[in-house]
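User: Sequence recovery, please. Input:
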C-alpha cells in the first residue's frame, strides 16, 4: 500500500518498529521512522497491524496527539475487525474507518498486486470518502460494507483464500501417499484448482461443478472413503464434510434425488459393517 500510494504521488512515511519491516521499507526506498514518537503529523493514518492489535494501536495513537489533527482520518486494514475498534480516536479525528483489499498479500507482493482487486470500505462518511480516494490511487475497486457484516465477509474471504491453500496441501499429501512425486503433485493440483477457479469466474458454481458427486457416482465416493480409512484416516472427517457441501451444490445443479440420498447415506456411514 505504501509503495502504491507513493507511486500515485502521496507523501508516505512508515512507522516500521520491527527490523524486518524496516528492512522491507528500506528495500522499497520508502521513508520510515522507528517509533510513533518520531513520526510526522499526518492527514491520514493507516493501521496495517494484526487484527488483535488494532485496538491497542488506536490507543497508542492517543498517546501521540502530535500525529493527529481534527481533520485527520484513521483507517485500519483488517477485514474482520469492526471500525468500532477505533472508538478511542473518535473525539480526536475527523473520521475513522477501514479499508480491506480482497486480495492475498505476502512480503513478496508488489504494489501492482492490488490493481483491479475489490476492497471493502467501512466507517463514517469522511472515512469512506478517504478510503475511496485511496482505492482510486491504488487501483482498487471499492464497495461499501456494513461494519456488523465484516466478520461474515471476512469468513468468506478466508474460505476462498486460506482454505483453498490448506485443501491443496491435503490433495498434495494424499497424492504423494499414493506415489506421486511432491513437485509433480504440487504443479498438477495447482493447475487442477486453477481450472476450477477459472470455471467459477465464468459461470455459476452449479455449472462449474464436476466430479463423482454431481455425476451421482456413489461407487467412486465409497472407494474414496475406503481409501482414506485405510491410508489417511486423519483426513476422513474433512472429506465427509466437504463432500456434504458438494452434495448440496450438486442438488442445486440437478442431481437425481435418489442418487443424492444414496451418496448422503454413504457419507453418513463411512465405515459400513
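Assistant: Recovered sequence (273 residues):
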Amino acid at each position: 500500500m505504501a509503495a502504491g500510494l507513493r507511486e500515485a504521488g502521496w507523501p508516505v512515511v512508515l512507522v516500521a518498529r520491527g527490523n524486518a519491516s524496516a528492512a522491507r521499507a528500506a528495500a522499497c526506498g520508502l521513508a520510515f521512522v522507528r517509533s510513533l514518537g518520531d513520526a510526522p503529523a499526518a492527514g491520514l493514518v493507516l493501521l496495517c497491524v494484526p487484527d488483535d492489535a488494532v485496538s491497542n494501536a488506536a490507543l497508542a495513537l492517543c498517546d501521540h496527539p502530535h500525529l493527529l489533527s481534527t481533520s485527520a482520518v484513521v483507517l485500519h486494514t483488517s477485514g474482520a475487525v469492526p471500525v468500532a475498534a477505533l472508538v478511542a480516536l473518535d473525539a480526536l479525528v475527523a473520521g475513522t474507518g477501514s479499508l480491506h483489499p480482497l486480495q492475498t498479500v505476502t512480503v513478496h507482493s508488489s504494489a501492482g498486486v492490488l490493481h483491479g482487486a475489490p476492497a471493502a470500505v467501512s466507517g463514517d462518511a469522511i472515512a469512506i470518502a478517504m478510503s475511496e480516494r485511496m482505492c482510486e490511487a491504488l487501483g482498487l475497486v471499492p464497495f461499501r460494507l456494513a461494519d456488523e457484516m465484516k466478520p461474515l465477509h471476512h469468513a468468506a474471504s478466508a474460505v476462498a483464500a486460506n482454505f483453498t491453500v490448506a485443501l491443496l496441501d491435503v490433495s498434495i499429501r494424499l497424492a504423494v501417499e499414493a506415489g506421486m512425486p511432491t513437485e509433480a503433485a504440487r504443479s498438477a493440483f495447482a493447475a487442477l484448482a486453477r481450472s476450477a477457479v477459472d470455471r467459477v469466474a465464468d459461470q455459476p458454481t452449479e455449472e462449474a461443478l464436476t466430479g463423482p458427486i454431481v455425476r451421482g457416482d456413489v461407487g467412486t465416493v465409497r472407494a474414496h472413503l475406503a481409501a482414506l480409512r485405510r491410508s489417511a484416516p486423519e483426513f476422513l472427517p474433512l472429506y465427509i464434510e466437504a463432500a456434504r457441501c458438494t452434495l448440496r451444490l450438486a442438488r442445486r445443479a440437478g442431481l437425481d434425488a435418489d442418487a443424492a440420498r444414496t451418496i448422503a447415506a454413504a457419507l453418513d456411514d463411512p465405515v459400513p459393517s
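The beta strands are 14-15, 32-33, 44-47, 73-76, 95-101, 118-123, 141-144.
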